[in-house]
Amino acid sequence: MDVVNQLVAQGQFTVLKQPLGFIKILQWIFAIFAFSTCGSYSGMFKMSVECKNRTESDLGIEVEFEYPFRLHQVYFDSPTCKGANKERLFLVGDYSSSAEFFVTIAVFSFLYSMAALSVYCFILEKYRENCKGAQIDFVVSAVFAFMWLVSSCAWAKGLSDVKTATDPEKVITLITACDEPENRCREVHDPKVSGLNTSVAFGFINLILWIGNLWFVFKETGWMAALSGTYVPSQEKPPAPDSFAQGGYAQQDPYAGSQGGYQPEYGQQGGYTEEGGYSQGYEQQPTSFSNQM
Length: 293
Fold this sequence. Notes:
Transmembrane segments: 25-44, 101-124, 136-157, 200-218
Number of strands: 7
Domain MARVEL: 15-222
Pfam families: MARVEL (PF01284)
Protein name: Synaptophysin b
Subcellular location: Membrane
Number of helices: 9
Strand order of the largest sheet: 2-1-5
């Protein structure tokens, strides 16, 4: 508990109120919605086969399927309407690749968003140091935005195929007994795929969030300032302005050398007074012209 309290005390949670941190929270939440609605799905549809001989009929054929939608492994037993024998039939299609790809991107987005939030809250200074952390974050965010685009489109197409393959009217055509006009086949219950439709919607919402996040991360990279010519790296400081000591009044007087003659001392008491006269640096009073005469 001491370690947790220390981390909480050192955390900078105000970044969560800023767009950079707030949008990461949304990405984290919607990634959970995406992989949970798709990865936890299980559905069922029901059909009935009424034979000419009622004793051979089966009015409640249930077919269950679930993620990852390897429908070619899903089977059910149907009456043949030729005695007590039944035939085993399999659904058509394997749509596990698009579904698993979608869930994988959602899981990795969830993990990266959680890691990025930890960086924002606890080591934000190192994240912004030399803009390296922000630049890495921008590249990874761009990759995730592209992956969300690909995975959402692929899963939308895969879901459309799953709906077709699990349509009871489509599955009835696989039953041999339904080819006979004296037998009656019909659907009883359609599968509920509202959860799968929601997963596709969450996929495209994540795509919008990650594309929007690129702008807020880009502002942290310093690339915009570098392109405009106003960016100064943190390890380099602009030169200080020229002072008076470098080429002004503090230079050594060329007349103050070892040569003889008159050498004024500007730093002493002697100098020009406000009345325009000159006062020397010694205390002896000047001799007036009247005395000399």
